[in-house]
Design a protein that fits this description.
The structure is a homodimer of 369-residue chains. Chain A has 369 residues and is of the alpha/beta class. Chain A has 13 helices and 17 strands. The first copy, chain A, folds into two domains: 107 residues, Orthogonal Bundle (Arc Repressor Mutant, subunit A), CATH 1.10.10; 216 residues, Dna Topoisomerase Vi A Subunit, Chain: A, domain 2, CATH 3.40.1360. In chain A, 42% of the residues lie in helices and 18% in strands. In chain A, helix 2 crosses helix 3, helix 2 packs across helix 4 and helix 11 runs antiparallel to helix 12. The radius of gyration of chain A is 23 Å and the shape is globular.
């Protein structure tokens, strides 16, 4: 992306943020009650759009106004947060949710009252601004942790440095929290697909065995529930390079959930699905039928506990798990009463994942949609 | 390190592991009771060596023999684990603790008994073998998570790839779990010091601001309590390139503890201090006196809870915190009743850490030893 576009994009976001303050001033000058109209972020305002395959927000909005005893403090806080976010845009800096809380915290003049008493007061306001201004958190320059890693036939440009992900050994490139085009440019990608691996331990196995070279893929992990940067990178590779995305998770309700968040977004952050979700992502395993198919002994399975069982039953009811294959998948787990970690494949052989399991899965197109 | 040395080092470790099985066979052939002599890994066998500045193991050993009803199963398990570890050496693979558990788990023939029922049975045996064979876990090819990141004037060679850590943008190189010379070679390092940062959020700030370029240092983080790979890399840079290591942590008992583990090792893994600890590491902050010195308002401090207070009092008694400066440091925290996160520096300015706090610390040599 050309430098000019990047700058103008940042200008747009800054203008939106400044607009929040402007609307207050304009209203005050007209002796009107300053009011913000904020989309409602609650379960009641969330739908699963079957056609698009994503969880999305409805159209309900709520007014937040200054001359309302119940809303005045929150209104003031919203403006303070918008101001801090505008500062980030102007200085071209990124920061964390926590630092925004600290930045905007002070004691109100001639009082003992703090602008904010805890981060739990500032975080929701950042989400409010995201939905109101239709700007991703990343576009507001707010980062989360960066605990993702990538290797494979992919060249990124980060701060002007050309990062060739085929030349980073086993270790790989540490995926930043913000991978928006403003910060990270994808300059080359010759891979056939993305393999998004839940846990670092399998990613390490695949990286050590140079699986990406043999199968011409991009190996990506978030070391657990994938952080936003990892999801956004997968989404960009999917969208900009039309790469299929295969998700490899443990065989437990948590694994299904991770997959579903990658695929259609989450209920809590429904407004982000639009630019985070990958509705065509495939679940490549670990499937309930795999232990039998790959001859794993039952004693490497782990007994489902009550929490697992309840969670699996909840998943069975989700609209996005209504396909017959998915019902069978989840019911299969419940019927054996066992869950399996991918690590259990080591029972066969330390390299079973690389040399047998995934090659066969890919050859047989054995995945769920 | 030349390829030959690497191979011969791996041979040595493999021989040690095979030796465990051999000693069993030899004893059996001589109609003797096969016995392993294992150093005792308990608090009673741990000392702080003031002269060397590290926590180290004493010389007590215990016998583990096969013809002893109470020890037979554990003996058999130890041999199984040694066998799996030897397999890793022969195939030149690395794996996780969890996979070793799965690899060695099976049902004993003609019985319903498992070799292992949980990973809590195999993990301690790996530690037993580490101390018995005097081989670091990394040398046994057992990895932990890799959640560390590095940037700065440092060139590593990983799997034959030359990784220049000045050319990896803001994201950086993902530090692998195993950074032994067998896997990672340091081919160039022109830095003046290592800055080991507890949290990713400060590391991101420093990386974004290219602090490493201005202060010619290596920026390293483990995103929390530093994982083994990060500690080993810092130690190697300290030892092989004589770089001072400065540790930047939050101002709380947990921060002091993280620093102390980096510096003199931990009680639980005392046998590793020898090759993990950095006795000359300095604590550069966040110090109890910093909030006053840098004019932070008290309302960004967090009230110490009972757990914090008890932990701080425990730390006061540790032999390695007996220096007057350290007693003042910890008592300073207790007397204000407040702890501070580094994130709170954002209260002054988003770049306060990079532009004011650390430059002044470095200029004034303001650190604790």
């Amino acid at each position: 992306m050309a430098r000019k576009n990047i700058k103008s994009h940042s200008d747009v976001v800054e203008k939106k943020l400044v607009g929040v303050a402007d609307s207050v001033i304009t209203a005050a000058q007209r002796n009107q009650d300053p009011t913000l109209s904020i989309p409602v972020r609650s379960l009641a305002n969330v739908n699963f759009n079957e056609k698009r395959g994503i969880i999305e927000m409805g159209r309900r909005k709520q007014a937040r106004s200054f001359f309302n005893v119940g809303m005045a403090k929150k209104f003031m806080q919203t403006v303070l947060v918008a101001d801090a976010l505008a500062e980030l845009q102007r200085a071209n800096l990124t920061t964390s949710l926590r630092e925004i809380y600290y930045r905007t915290k002070h004691t109100i003049k001639n009082s003992h009252e703090n602008t904010f008493d805890g981060q739990n007061e500032s975080d929701p306001l950042i989400e409010d601004l995201e939905v109101t201004l239709e700007a991703l958190r990343e576009e507001l320059h707010v980062r989360a942790e960066n605990s993702g890693t990538v290797v494979g036939p992919l060249v990124l440009v980060d701060d002007g440095d050309r990062v060739d992900c085929t030349r980073l050994g086993k270790g790989g490139y540490s995926v930043p929290s913000i991978v928006e085009p403003e910060y990270i440019q994808i300059s080359k990608c010759t891979a056939d697909f993305v393999l998004l691996v839940e846990k670092g331990t399998q990613w390490n196995r695949l990286s050590e065995d140079k699986f990406w070279r043999r199968y011409n893929c991009i190996l990506l992990t978030g070391n657990g529930q994938p952080p936003r940067g990892v999801r956004r990178l997968a989404r960009r590779l999917h969208q900009e390079y039309k790469l299929p995305v295969y998700v490899l998770v443990d065989n437990d309700p948590w694994g299904y959930y991770i997959y579903s968040v990658i695929k259609q977004g989450s209920i809590n952050l429904a407004f982000e699905s639009e630019r985070m979700a990958i509705p065509k992502a495939k679940f490549i395993g670990f499937s309930s039928s795999d232990p039998d198919r790959y001859g794993l002994p039952r004693n490497v399975g782990i007994k489902l506990n009550d929490k697992d069982i309840n969670r699996a039953r909840e998943l069975l009811k989700y609209k996005w798990f209504q396909k017959k294959e998915w019902q069978n998948e989840i019911k299969g787990m419940l019927s054996t009463g066992l869950k399996y970690e991918l690590d259990a494949l080591a029972n066969k052989d330390f390299q079973y994942l690389t040399k047998t399991y995934l090659p066969r899965k890919l050859k047989e197109n054995d995945w769920l949609d």
